[in-house]
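Exam revision sheet. Question 4 asks you to relate a sequence to its structure. Input first:
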Amino acid sequence: MKQFLGRTENQKNRHKNNLAGVMVMMLLLFACFQFSGCGRCSHSSDNSCHPKDSVHNSEDEPAGPNNDQSDIGSRDGNGQAIDTLLENELITESIPLGELKPYDRLHFEIEGREIVPQFTSIYQKSYSSQWEVHFCYHMDLGRNPPSYPSYPPFPPRPDYNKKESCYSFPMKGTCKHKWRDRSTNKLRAIEITDDLSRLRLKLEIGGKLYPLGKIVKRDKDTVLTSLTIAPEMLALATKAKLVVQKLTAQKVKTGFMGFGHCDGLGKKNFKTDGPMDSSMETVTRLQEFIVSASVEYELDHGE
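Answer key, C-alpha cells:
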C-alpha cells in the first residue's frame, strides 16, 4: 500500500512539472511573436518575404555582400522600413521594380552614358578625269557666190561657198571627290540636369511615365533622386518599372558627297575614275543607365 501511494505521489509531481514546462514554452512562443516577423514583401518577381530587422550577433562573420543577410530589409526607430530593389543594374530598355503602395518613397542612384554614332568630316580624294573637246572650223571657198535662177525663187545661201570641219579631242585632268565615312562610336557620360523630366529614364506605372522625382545629391556623374508615390499614380496599376525612352532616329548620308575642284566637269563625255556611290544610314543615339534603387515605406500596424 505504501508503495502504491508513493508511485501516485510521484506521478502527481511529474504532471505538475509537465504543466510548468508547457507554460514556459507558451510564454517563449508569445515573446517570439512579439519581437519577430516578416517585413514588407520583396518588390522583386519572386514575391519572397524579408524579416523586418537585420540582427547580426556573430563577431567572426561580418555582414556583407557574401552574407545572406545583405539582402534583408532594414528599418529605423521611426517605424520606417527600407527594401533594396536594384543594385548597380545596367538598364538599356526596361527593368521591373515590383508592386508599390501609396506614399512609398523611392530612392534612385543614377549614372547615365550615351553611345553616339560618329562620322568623319567631309574630306577629298583625287582621281583622274577624262572628257572631250569638240572643235569645228570653216573653210571659205571664195568670195563670189554663184548666180541663182529667177524662177522659182530660192532663198539665198550665204554658206554655199563655205565648208565646215569638226573634230573631237580627248582631254585628261584631275577631279576631287568629296567623301564621308562612318567611324567608331563614341561613349560619353550623360549630363543629368535638375529638370528630370528631360531625362530619358522614367518610371512607368499603368502605361504612364513619370520623372524620377527630384535630385537630392550629386557625386560627379552620379545623382541621387527621391520620389514619393502619390495615390493617383496607382489608379490604373500598382506594378512599376523603369524604362529608357528611345531617341529619334536620324538619316545621315555617307560615301560620295559631291565634287570639289574637277577638271572637265560638265564637258562632253565627262567621266572620272573615282567612285560616286553613296548611302543613307539610319542612326540613333543609344542611352543606358546604371541604377540602384530602394523603397522606403511605413511599417504596417503591429509589425
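Marking note for examiners. The chain is about 10% helix and 50% strand.
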